[in-house]
Predict the 3D structure of the following.
Amino acid sequence: MRIAIAGLGYVGLSLACLLSKNSPVEAVDIDAGRVEKINAGISPIADSKIEDCLSGKPHNLHATLDATSAYADSDVVVIATPTNYDDATHSFDTSSIEDVLALISGSGGNPTVVIKSTVPVGYTASISRRFDKLRILFSPEFLREGHALEDNLHPSRIVVGITKPEDEQAAREFARLLDEGSEEKDVPTLVMGSTEAEAIKLFANTYLALRVSFFNELDTYAESKGLSTRQIIEGVCLDPRIGDQYNNPSFGYGGYCLPKDSKQLLSNYADVPQNLIRAIVDSNATRKEFIAERVLARSPRTVGIYRLVMKAGSDNFRQSAMLDVIKLIAARGVEIVIYEPTLTGLEALGHPLVSLAELKERCDLVLANRWNDDLADVREKVYTRDLWQRD
Ligand SMILES: NC(=O)c1ccc[n+]([C@@H]2O[C@H](COP(=O)([O-])OP(=O)(O)OC[C@H]3O[C@@H](n4cnc5c(N)ncnc54)[C@H](O)[C@@H]3O)[C@@H](O)[C@H]2O)c1
């Protein structure tokens, strides 16, 4: 089985490592630097398992900019390109997927196409009508950034969606490829309509956003009333129906997926009654405004930002809650400096980048979405809502 993968980010690269264990993989990107790094055995993203995989220079994995040849010569093309949320159209921008589909159509090959990018509910059925010569499947991806390959080696489930009954065999074959690459036995596998499969992805991420929002609003209440958040959460979560996981307060949910996927689901509800989905989206903005007000209430002269990333071990800060908190505080005239070791320039977001030592020296208040022992000597200056150094 010859496989091509379009888009070598968290999703594409982890799948390239996984699938190349058993099949030759041509890994395609439009970013020449990324392709060069991968072929040199260097991971362009922070993920220890992907780093280990690439440093071993897997003989079955080759990265390329030559998309047309890669797609023409493949039995399966997996699409893992970005789908950013567009606030103007209230929907994901799916143009990168359509660029790949157009290239596949013109390549002369006849591969099964599997969309791994997250898409609006109903997208695969509608795009299959436009590209009616292609067999297009949708398979939601559930990995976490920083643990991308680990999560694909130990998947919670494999879901593949089809648009017509005759594609079931191809769906089962793709599920088998994922299963074969994993280190688990008997991974629960579901084959269903593509629209249900798309809904699974958006409902799963919106549920996670709900859970983060719930414990953040609990924390907003406790902080406003001078109560111990820790005691309340511990008591609430001992109920096994609630569970003691994914309950650590933060400045808001962030990262590439939760903010955009919950907004996309809300958009899919356009003609369907709901209260909760809208509340999950709005709750995050309210939380960040609350955090900013708590910071401003301390009348700081200079606020230091300890990391822009959402969590320890992350190497990017796409849609991180800290970004919005910074905007809200800066709009009120407070000086801001940022410590973010993954950045090397002099400035980030219009604010100076400083060393950790300068951050501690120069600021009267330090914001940390996640606590780190780096900050132990300035503990009294730190504002964080992190209780358990996890999630
Ligand atoms: N990051 C996650 O945790 C995660 C989890 C599940 C699902 N997803 C979904 O998977 C998709 C990809 O996410 P990601 O985080 O891996 O993205 P990413 O931004 O890390 O990587 C995307 C890659 O695609 C490349 N690309 C863009 N257009 C291309 C094209 N036309 N042809 C080939 N390559 C192209 C980019 O250069 C980039 O290297 C998104 O739809 C996302 O919502 C992401």
The pocket of nicotinamide-adenine-dinucleotide is lined by residues 6-12, 28-31, 34, 80-83, 96, 99-100, 117-118, 141, 143, 145, 256-257 (CB under 6 Å).
